[in-house]
Design brief:
Layout: E1 11-13, E2 34-37, E3 53-69, E4 80-85, E5 88-90, E6 103-104, E7 116-128, E8 130-138, E9 152-154, E10 158-164, E11 175-184, E12 194-204, E13 213-222, H1 232-235, E14 237-241, E15 249-252, E16 262-271, E17 274-280, E18 288-291, E19 314-316, E20 321-324, H2 327-336
Antiparallel strand pairs: 1-20, 2-13, 3-4, 3-7, 3-12, 4-5, 4-8, 6-7, 8-9, 8-10, 10-11, 11-16, 12-13, 13-14, 14-15, 15-18, 16-17, 19-20
Length: about 325
């Protein structure tokens, strides 16, 4: 999301230092643990005789979330954010380094109270194969109730979905389709640029040599700063496998770009243990494209105009815009006009 889509937000910020953090940036990185044999029994999943099947899903989300009033912390304006994941409200557990002032612990005397403001959260995804996540937010002065205020916004949701590949007749070392990741690049609150989704996939077969192999990793969703000086490819948010940067990343256009902002990528691999070998873009006409790099702005980025210093940054989005609402500047402009 940028100032074209939300005119109230003004200065597009670039924050590259966040990509150096091991926490949450806006690419998808799958973080590792390959080659372990799964304790799961092949009897728990039906697979046709002589074939290999894949089953698995997402285990945990870790990243930035918002819940409640920031109490005037951002440029002297109050904001209300509520993060949702698979339909459930998400609450921050710990403050975000550098943004501690916007995390408010729950009242210890109220057993039903939740932390509010901005912070990190871990969410049990319970093996789900599809994750929907979005943010509802309210902004501007005077502060409006999110159910009543005209400034209440419910934006385009994001999703990440894994569909296992078809049962395959393969042997040890043969490459086959592990599954397909489908994504939609909507808008998500992200005070951190990287959001992490751990997952685990396991093989099932009546052949003991092919069954019980597990690929466990972390898919990092990397949110990029948006600016009109960049191409749609450069501002596309992306996903990468933390444990296997050599297979590259897959990227998805912003929803405001005028291009498709959803699509899919195939993940291929082999049993040796179970390890990924390549990403394949099966539909060049959708909103997802392959990039060998796992870093931000791999496509000849121009040198941006330096942004003014800021005290607090907000990111809105798989849409990934780093922004500052400079109310004091607006006030001075009105006064001078």
């Amino acid at each position: 999301m940028n100032s074209i889509v939300r005119p109230q937000w003004e200065t597009v910020m670039q924050v590259f230092s966040s990509y150096n953090s091991a926490r949450v940036t806006s690419a998808v990185v799958l973080a590792c643990c390959l080659g372990a044999s799964s304790a799961a029994s092949a009897s728990t999943v039906f697979c046709p005789p002589g074939l290999v099947c894949i089953q698995g899903g997402f285990l945990q989300y870790f990243g930035a979330v918002g819940n409640g009033d920031t109490q005037g912390g951002f440029a002297s304006n109050p904001y209300l954010f509520q993060t949702y994941m698979n339909g459930a409200q998400v609450y921050p557990a710990d403050p975000i380094p550098g943004l501690e002032a916007y995390f408010f612990p729950a009242d210890p005397n109220d057993p039903g109270a939740m932390n509010t403001g901005l912070g990190h959260a871990s969410v049990d995804l319970q093996g789900a194969q599809e994750i929907n996540f979005w943010t509802e937010y309210d902004y501007d002065d005077p502060f409006d109730d999110p159910d009543q205020g005209v400034n209440h916004v419910v934006d385009v949701l994001n999703y990440i979905q894994f569909t296992p590949g078809p049962a395959a007749e393969v042997g040890v070392g043969d490459e086959f389709l592990l599954g397909t990741f489908a994504v939609q690049n909507g808008v998500f609150f992200a005070a951190d640029a990287i959001h992490k989704f751990s997952f685990s996939f396991t093989t099932y077969s009546d052949d003991p040599a092919l069954s019980g192999h597990t690929y466990a990793d972390v898919l990092e969703h990397v949110v990029t700063p948006n600016a009109t000086v960049y191409t749609p490819e450069q501002v596309a948010d992306f996903f990468r496998f933390q444990g296997h940067p050599e297979i590259g990343s897959f990227r998805v256009y912003e929803y405001y770009s005028g291009l498709p902002f959803q699509g899919a990528i195939e993940l291929w691999g082999r049993i040796g243990s179970l390890e990924p070998t390549q990403l394949v873009d099966g539909d060049p006409n959708d909103g997802v494209f392959f990039e060998q790099s796992v870093d931000p702005y791999p496509i000849d980025p121009p040198t941006p105009t330096p942004a003014p210093a800021v005290a607090v940054l907000l990111a809105l989005g798989l849409g990934g815009t780093w922004v500052l609402r400079r109310r004091s500047v607006q006030s001075e402009s009105r006064a001078s006009g």
